Amino acid sequence: MNRLQTELPGLSMKNPVMPASGCFGFGQEFAKLYDLNKLGAICVKAVTLDERAGNPTPRVAETPGGMLNAIGLQNPGLSHVLENELPWLEKYDIPVVVNIAGYEPTDYTEVAREISRAKNVSAIELNISCPNVKEGGIAFGTHAATAADLTEKVKAVSNVPVYVKLSPNVTDIVPIAKAVESAGADGLSMINTLLGMRIDLKTGKPVLANKTGGLSGAAIKPVAIRMIYEVSQQVDIPIIGMGGIFEVDDILEFMMAGASAVAVGTANFIDPFACPNLIEGLEKRMDELGIDKLSSITGRSSLLCRQTL
Amino acid sequence: MKDEYLKIKEQKQLAPNIFQVKLQGKSIREMTAPGQFVHVKIQPGIDPSLRRPLSIADVEAEKEELTLIYRTEGRGTKLLAGKVPGEEIKVFGPLGKGFPTDAVKSGDTCLLVGGGVGIPPLYYLGRQLAEKGAEIITILGFRKAEDIFLEEEFQQLGKVIITTEDGSKGVKGYVTDAINQLASSYDTYYTCGPNPMLRAVEETAKGPGFVSMEERMGCGIGACLACVCQLKDPGSTSGRKYRKICSDGPVFPAGEVLI
């Protein structure tokens, strides 16, 4: 028995760990460091209909326990990804999740239709939460009705399960999660980055050329845990948890809060071998904690508390 | 490229805010190309949260010894300056594409132009060019005389011209003033320094040249797209219109990217 086996709609994973979208490109750089088959799955960078140049630099700024980024969804566009990036990944025997973004609902549906028909795509991650672009992205993710409407449209054209990536930049995330579930989402990804800012004291100007950026890293972990705990009790679809996972214990904490799988983002920059190191350390820690099968701990925390937040 | 703990052998201050650290470890044997960099995790944990990209100043492959020279700018580099011999830091590298030297022949003249903390990678380059029998002319730009470092080391490779903005030593003004006045004939130039300096050198210097860039980085291997720059002439290629400083660079042929 594989104690780490993780089964989600469209994703049969030998462990619950995947790199988070935007932190891993399309896999080629990290494939020079280790065998990507070690991963539970791979979530590749956001794909838009047309190529996007992204934001001016500086695009990153360090913060205590984290970082701000404002890359701006830079990507080579749908056709390039279909012709080059996805075929390159075919040599790996792991589920591929493609994050998709757009300016208009029709951008999303066109990308979803095409991407979901690529032969090695197992699921779509619907990005309605990128804080670093003016149009699209987060504009779809902060209102329940808008998010649900887009989810429904994307579901209607997609041949693979759709995970909606939620934004934490809202007063109450639960109604949005429930709305996209009702609209047919197969799962949720949460959380995207928290909108933040830093100012350079010498110039008096924001450090990032985009002024604001998305905060990620260990600093946001408690926010992610709280939101996953809240949402998991209100929806029946599985959650891929993310936001500041650096250690094996973080994975277990996310799962106990209600996640069924996890994505590792910023940690890949600090330890380029973060994903395989975390996967390797899981079973030993499960032994110490007396956990037989990893999937059994999903939502354990809320079950023990027997009350919602 | 490996991510290995390297032991600090020596740590010393070369000038105000400029430190030199010597490290030892097996992965250093791979650091053969000048102009590459390493991504340094200064201490375990999440403080500081990101790595620091530092250029390779020199390598003694046989002794497995790496020299990094850096400016204490923020919290990370200040912490690094406080590390003492015997302590270890995690070093990922070598990363990026360095200075091309294959076309340089014995007897060629190479001009090295460095400003401030852009000077260190030119030293490892200069040593390799000198070994190939090239004649080295080095122009080093500083704000003032007390900021000068590596002058004697470069003198062992060839002629050195110092410029200071306040005229307290050498040529008063910028490195470009020295190029115009004193270094009119050379086959190839190599430059590293702050962007305004790189732009000025590109405009002033003649012939084939190579420019080494700097930018805030995330992953250091080309995955996160934090450190991209644009092509000067995007119409010249049907491929990507941008370059990643960490993995396509940090060294680019002069004129290729927008500085």
Comma- or semicolon-separated keywords:
heterodimer, A: 309 residues, alpha/beta, eight-stranded parallel sheet, globular, B: 259 residues, six-stranded antiparallel β-barrel, 5 helices, 15 strands
Mean pLDDT over the full residue set of chain B: 94
Alpha-beta content class of chain B: alpha/beta
Number of strands of chain B: 15
Listing every helix as H and every strand as E from the N terminus to the C terminus, the arrangement of chain B reads: EEEEEHEEHEHEEHEHEEEE
Shape call of chain A = globular
The fraction of residues assigned to DSSP E strands of chain A is 15-25%
Main sheet overview of chain B? 7 strands, mixed
Total of DSSP H or I helical runs spanning 4+ residues of chain A: 10
Structural Rg of chain B: 18 Å
- Order of strands, main sheet of chain B, comes to 10-9-8-7-11-12-15
Question: Helices, strands, pairings?
Answer:
The complex is a heterodimer of chains A (309) and B (259).
Chain A: E1 6-8, E2 11-13, E3 17-19, H1 28-31, E4 42-47, E5 60-63, E6 66-69, H2 78-89, E7 96-100, H3 105-115, E8 121-127, H4 144-157, E9 162-165, H5 174-182, E10 187-190, E11 194-197, E12 212-216, H6 221-232, E13 239-242, H7 248-257, E14 261-264, H8 267-270, H9 274-289, H10 300-305
Parallel strand pairs in A: 3-14, 4-7, 7-8, 8-9, 9-10, 10-13, 13-14
Antiparallel strand pairs in A: 1-2, 5-6, 6-12, 11-12
Helix pairs in contact in A: 3-4, 4-5, 6-7
Chain B: E1 2-15, E2 18-24, E3 37-41, E4 52-60, E5 65-71, H1 75-81, E6 88-95, E7 109-115, H2 120-131, E8 135-142, H3 151-155, E9 158-164, E10 171-172, H4 175-182, E11 188-192, H5 195-204, E12 209-212, E13 228-230, E14 242-244, E15 251-253
Parallel strand pairs in B: 7-8, 7-11, 8-9, 9-10, 11-12
Antiparallel strand pairs in B: 1-2, 1-6, 2-5, 3-4, 3-6, 4-5, 12-15, 13-14
Structural description of this entry:
The complex is a heterodimer of chains A (309) and B (259). In chain A, helix 4 links the parallel strand 8 (121-127) and strand 9. Chain A has helices spanning 28-31, 78-89, 105-115, 144-157, 174-182, 221-232, 248-257, 267-270, 274-289, 300-305; strands at residues 6-8, 11-13, 17-19, 42-47, 60-63, 66-69, 96-100, 121-127, 162-165, 187-190, 194-197, 212-216, 239-242, 261-264. Chain A has an eight-stranded parallel beta sheet with strand order 3-14-13-10-9-8-7-4, covered by helices on one side. In chain A, strands 5-6-12-11 form a four-stranded antiparallel beta sheet, with no helix packed on it. In chain A, strands 1-2 form a two-stranded antiparallel sheet. The radius of gyration of chain A is 18 Å and the shape is globular. In chain A, 32% of the residues lie in helices and 19% in strands. In chain A, helix 3 packs parallel to helix 4 (144-157), helix 4 runs parallel beside helix 5 (174-182) and helix 6 packs parallel to helix 7. With 309 residues, chain A is α/β, with parallel strands linked by helices. The mean pLDDT of chain A is 95. Chain B has 259 residues and is an alpha/beta fold. Helix content of chain B is 16%, strand content 36%. Chain B has helices at 75-81, 120-131, 151-155, 175-182, 195-204; strands spanning 2-15, 18-24, 37-41, 52-60, 65-71, 88-95, 109-115, 135-142, 158-164, 171-172, 188-192, 209-212, 228-230, 242-244, 251-253. In chain B, the strands form three sheets. In chain B, strands 10-9-8-7-11-12-15 form a seven-stranded mixed beta sheet, sandwiched between helices. A six-stranded antiparallel beta barrel of chain B has the order 1-2-5-4-3-6. Chain B has a two-stranded antiparallel ribbon with strand order 13-14. The model of chain B has no long low-confidence stretch (mean pLDDT 94). The interface between A and B is medium-sized, with 37 and 32 residues.
